[in-house]
Amino acid sequence: LYINKMIKILKSFFHISVVFLIIISLLPGSLLGYLFYGDWRLQPELISNPFGTTINHFISYVYVSTLGFVLYLRNKNFKKLVYVLFFLAAILEVFHLAIPNRSFQLGDLIGNLLGVLVAYFLVKFYLYFGKNE
Q1: Could you tell me which of 98, 85, 119, 118 has the C-alpha nearest to residue 27?
Q2: Is residue 17 over pLDDT 80?
Q3: Mapping DSSP to helix (H, G, I), strand (E, B) and coil, where does residue 39 land?
Q4: How many other C-beta atoms lie within 10 A of the C-beta of residue 66?
Q5: How far apart are CA 51 and CA 33, in angstroms?
Q6: Which of 84, 80, 101, 81 is closest to 25 using CA atoms?
């Protein structure tokens, strides 16, 4: 009973995270830039690195995708979730071509897609090595 409640809570957290990811991706400007610097035009580097803000995209998609894949692993629609997250990762960055104060960045697109891919392989590796124990 406790496990079922926890899974429901985590699924809600996953869905809220996806909605939040969509919202911050479609806003005409950077919500994080506004929160940190008071300027919608600035993208904060959450982790200092040579890839700039692309790492933010990668981390966001690894988090959301891993949470979703783990929670829906045994669901018959797991494959659909994989496709939906890949589509979301691509389309949200492509939409930046039309959103004011946003710009399409190939690095961000790659970060989004790699985040989903890394999460997918993390789950697959877990399943593979979990069966061999």
Answers
A1: 98
A2: yes
A3: coil
A4: 19
A5: 17
A6: 101
Q: Give the pLDDT of residue 46.
A: 66
Closest CA to 53 of 69, 36, 67, 66: 36
Instruction: Specify the 3-state DSSP secondary structure of 29.
Output: coil
Query: Residue 43: what pLDDT?
Result: 75
Locus of tokens 């392989």: 121
Band (pLDDT 50/70/90 cuts) for residue 20 is very high
For position 33, what pLDDT does the model report? 81
Q: Cα separation of 11 and 75, whole Å?
A: 12
Q: Which two tokens stand for residue 71?
A: 């929670």
- Render 47-88 in DSSP notation, one character per residue: S--TTTTHHHHHHHHHHHHHHHHHHTTTSTTHHHHHHHHHHH
Q: Are 52 and 45 in contact (CB under 8 A)?
A: yes
